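ok here's 2,4-dienoyl-CoA reductase [(3E)-enoyl-CoA-producing], seq below lol
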Amino acid sequence: MTSSAVDTQEIFKQGIFKGKILLCSGGGTGICRDMTESIVRHGAKAVIVSRKIDKLQKAAEEMSKSAGGEVFAVQADVRKPEDVERAVAEAIKKFGRIDFLINGAAGNFLAPFEKLSYNAIKTVIEIDLLGTINLTKAVLPYLKASKGSIINVSMTLQYRGVPLQSHAGAAKAGIDALTRHWATEFGPSGIRVNGIAPGPIAATEGMKRLLSKQATPRTIPLQRFGELGDVSQSGVFLFSEAANYITGLTVVVDGGHWLTTSSSSYPDNLSKM
Ligand code: COA
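and the structure came out like this:
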């Protein structure tokens, strides 16, 4: 958790997730890593899943130390059903159950639609949207057994439309739809499904590579960029019993950014791209 965001341990009791097992795709870096760490600090054990095992293993070791819990790394490409099935089987072999699922794996880059290759569009949709579908399908039987909970990570750019991001926006809009569909379909099994749509969060890949330089804290109603902890505390809340009657909701954690900022993402050289 970063410096000035609120420590969830000051708000929620320490052991609220004791005995719970989290599986998080994209849990080795950025927002999902911080969410995983926060959930482990509250007593859960975690399995983080991503493509590059070296980086993932290092992240798992660091997180185990910093959060004082057990974090286990499993290599998998969420685009491949066979990888996902194997990762879930490894998680079950290690911990015996899965209570929480975070679908966070994402890939993105700024590019004009007419310059995107067919494969580029397919790649982003496969990682973000199909990856969410694949992992959820593989984890669902275990979530049914534990009456667990899902958080799908999306974005806000699809709410109004943003140039150079149609591939990612299409995928994220699909993820938001899945949050609502699954909430209705899995609710009778005792599974809650919610989403988190982060805005500009400082020190993340998305912020570095995707947000226009014109976006400043002054363009955001709350007058600051977000911090990792701002997102993590929403994750802890949504998995906690404080959110027991909340399902089908995507929580926007952006300081009000999307309400005021859309076309600010035009780059200076748009016409030449
Ligand atoms: N602009 C346009 N097209 C791009 C691109 C860019 N910046 N980056 C990748 N592509 C295209 C590739 O050219 C390729 O299409 P092609 O086969 O027609 O040439 C296609 O997307 C797949 O790219 P590739 O790098 O081969 O796929 P990958 O599966 O190894 O990785 C990403 C896909 C999205 C993860 C990778 O592009 C990447 O590393 N992105 C930046 C990191 C990131 O997304 N972080 C998380 C989100 S902020």
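fwiw Residues 106-109, 111, 116-117, 119-120, 123-124, 205-206 surround coenzyme A (CB under 6 Å). kinda neat tbh
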